[in-house]
Amino acid sequence: MGALSIQAVQFPIKKGLDNCYRRGSRSGGDVRIRCGIAEPSGQPAPMGQKTKYNDGLFEKAFMTLFARKMEKFAAVNKEQIGQKKKGFFDYDYDSFVDVSRRVMQGRNRMQQQVVVREVLLSMLPPGAPAQFKKLFPPTKWAEEFNAALTVPFFHWLVGPSEVVEVEINGMKQRSGVLIKKCRYLENSGCVGQCVNMCKIPTQDFFTNEFGLPLTMIPNFEDMSCEMVYGQVPPPFEEDPVAKQPCFADICPVANVNSSICPKLQA
Which parts of the sequence belong to the Beta-carotene isomerase D27-like C-terminal domain (predicted)? Predict the structure, then answer.
């Protein structure tokens, strides 16, 4: 994930996770922008159930943009042979997740992460990482600003989230993002897909390409996730996710005989 265009805007986040976020309007009031959750409660569905979303043009545009960039790296399934190429707004979230899954086919963990890095770089203008480093050196302000941007711009990918306080080097700051129930994880149902296609490449991209440390901490018990800007991620071998087993009941490619998700092995 990367910020393509940055403006000096403030995103005051409403306390408590709900089905929207707010930003200030010119008149001084709040503009309510829905995150697209179609559940009657306005909240993500309970664990074991898939949350219903009502995606608009903004969401579908991003799904299409990412999916079409990834399609060139994806394996072609038999049922796709001879089918007409998808139009710009023919992609939905399920097809985006399907493209991600096909990118994994025939690739090991490191190769999958390389593909995601290439896709992310392809979406940025030339010189963007270097410019990002100039605009956002690893300071408290930059970390908090990027946390605030994550909430509105990536709800299409991960669902509703909020900025939370975290501790970085002994200091409290609002550079954490709490994702209540990650849309990507609940739709893929795959631990390896979460780690290889989202967590690790996103951490590496911000930390190494942008120079802004980021650690993502998924909770596989409830599918929540915490993103911590300013925290250097641990080596994969020392990360708790490296020992995570499959979701035996929901993963389409789960190996119930393995204590660790096979997709996490090199």
Answer: 156-238
**pLDDT tens digits, residue range 52-98?**
999 998 899 999 999 999 999 998 876 665 666 777 677 899 999 99
Q: What whole-number distance in Å separates Cα of residue 21 and Cα of residue 232?
A: 28
User: pTM value?
Assistant: 0.83
Residues in Cβ contact with 256 at an 8 Å cutoff, skipping those fewer than 6 apart: 246, 248
The first and second tokens of residue 204, run together, are 């590496």
Q: Which two tokens stand for residue 252?
A: 């389409």
Q: H helices of the chain, where?
A: 57-71, 93-104, 109-122, 128-135, 140-153, 155-158, 183-188, 191-194, 200-204
3-state secondary structure of 31: strand
Taking CA atoms, 102 is separated from 39, 60, 73, 145, 205, in Å, by: 29, 20, 8, 34, 22
The answer to whether 98 touches 197, Cβ cutoff 8 Å, is no
DSSP secondary structure of 231-246? -PPPPGGGSGGGGPPP
CB contact at 8 A, 191 and 263: yes
Q: How far is Cα 252 from Cα 249, in angstroms, rounded to an integer?
A: 9
Q: What is the DSSP letter of 35?
A: -
Render pLDDT for 151-162 as a digit per residue (tens, 0 to 9).
999 999 999 999
Whether the Cβ atoms of residue 234 and residue 243 lie closer than 8 Å to each other? no
Neighbours of 78 (CB within 10 A): 6
Residue with structure tokens 């306390």? 15
